[in-house]
Amino acid sequence: MSTQPRLCTTPAAVTDAVAVLLLSDYLVLDCEGKDIGRTDGLLSVICIGTAHAEHIFVFDTLALTRSEPAMAPLLDLMKNERVCKVVWDGRQDFLEILDNYGVRLGGVLDLQLAEVTSRSAVRGEDDRRRLYRLSSGYLSFQLARKIKKDLNDIHLVIGLQKCLELTRLQDTVGKDAEVVAMHKANGGVPWMERPLSSQLIQYAANDIYAIDLLYKFFLQKNWIKLNTLPLLLDQSKRYVSTQWQQGRTERTHPFRIGALVPLDVLKSPQTTLERCSGCERMLSLPCFEHKRQSGILRKSRCRLCNVIAAKKRLPCDEGWMRVTHTGRPGEVI
Ligand SMILES: [Zn+2]
């Protein structure tokens, strides 16, 4: 990539950056930090690129706090629903921006979700293929057969690197192998150290470049279509807020959000909401196994959490709860 990322650590640099960002047709956004979205997570930088990654700004969130007046126009831009922010898995980014700056990231278009929706809508994948993905990439074939009825509407997501390989763009933009190795090593990447190394700034900027390339590929191949864009924006809005709804989770949390698309994301919830005892999100009744018996009874965990429980060999969700429609967990039957 040729774009030189610009590190912004001062109010003047933020003001200059916002003047450029305001002129762009869309923005590409990605956050980096230490274990972002986790209980001990810390945000280090917010990277924002303009269309075609012509300009990439790396905002140092340690130097630029929410009380800095020069940040206000940037925060307005981030929450503006009319300014499209293209992201790849914005679930942790949404949580960190809201926690650190008090604004809800608006106008999000999440390519990780667009890749999922394009499978059946554009690429002709049928339900057997969806089950094959789950069987080969997440569960075993044996387990998938055993819990097949629980797998309705459950979709596996893929990572950014895997998508670059799928679209054969991996040679155009690659991850810095040294930083990838740091991610895997015990000490992790020194995102919280200052000054940030030029290697890390470049690494952060590379993701912006990669997301922009994928966005153009998705448009070119009709994986994102203009007529379904409003739906994808609605789905993305629900998707990116799921980690925030669950709250920060420990690394070892059995039901932490990860490789599966959370329920009530692809479809908008239509009923009153019930709390799942696994992921603790408020979800509509179809997200739970339920039955009529002097009213409505449901399982305490959502279907997705029960799939995770099966994979992790956790105890089964045996009991039934009465649906109370109060929004609070019902009585256990
Ligand atoms: Zn759940």
Automatic annotation (TrEMBL):
GO terms for molecular function: 3'-5' exonuclease activity; nucleic acid binding. Residues 7-219 form the 3'-5' exonuclease domain. Pfam families: DNA_pol_A_exo1. It comes from the Eukaryota. GO terms for biological process: nucleobase-containing compound metabolic process. PANTHER family: RIBONUCLEASE D. This is 3'-5' exonuclease domain-containing protein. It comes from Piloderma croceum (strain F 1598). The lineage of its organism: Eukaryota, Fungi, Dikarya, Basidiomycota, Agaricomycotina.
